[in-house]
Amino acid sequence: MTIQNIKAFLVKMQEDPTIKNKVLSSSTADDVAQIALKLGFEFSGDELLRFSGKKVGKVTVRKNDVPGEYS
Q1: What per-residue confidence (pLDDT) applies to 56?
Q2: What mean pLDDT comes out for the span 26-36?
Q3: Mean pLDDT over each residue of the chain, to the nearest integer
Q4: What are the angstrom distances between the C-alpha of 52 and each of 7, 20, 70?
Q5: What is the rounded distance in angstroms from the CA atom of residue 20 to the CA atom of residue 67?
Q6: Going by C-beta distance under 8 Å and a sequence separation of 6 or more, which residues neighbour residue 37?
Q7: Residue 59 bridge partners (DSSP)
Q8: What is the phi-psi region of residue 10: left when phi exceeds 0, alpha when psi lies from -120 to 50, beta otherwise?
Q9: Domain residues of the chain, as ranges?
Q10: Among 27, 12, 2, 3, which residue's Cα sits nearest to residue 57?
Q11: Helices 17-24 and 29-38 sit at what angle, rounded to 10 degrees?
């Protein structure tokens, strides 16, 4: 069910520029999962990360490795 939710969310995101902009401005996969949840698509950030490298329509899920901050 999770994979279907991810795929359905990515299709919806491609159709709605507002959702796409929110996703593109998100910092983490968990942030994206929260956006999806508000729209009725349930999956975790970890599940989304495991989907990395897969393509749905014109969207390819990619994990961005961002170096952490050091103090």
Answers
A1: 87
A2: 94
A3: 88
A4: 12, 17, 26
A5: 24
A6: none
A7: 56
A8: alpha
A9: 2-60
A10: 12
A11: 150
The whole-angstrom separation of Cα 15 and Cα 12 is 5
Q: Which amino acid is at 35?
A: I
60 confidence band (pLDDT: 50, 70, 90): confident
Mean pLDDT of 28-39: 96
What element of type H or E holds 24?
helix 17-24
- Give the C-alpha distances (Å, rounded to integers) separating 16 from 39, 54, 68: 12, 20, 31
Residues 45, 16 contacting (CB under 8 angstroms)? no
DSSP class of residue 40 equals T
For residue 64, name the pLDDT band (cuts at 50, 70, 90). confident
How far, in Å, CA of 32 to CA of 20, rounded?
Answer: 10
For residue 49, what are its two tokens? 């990360």
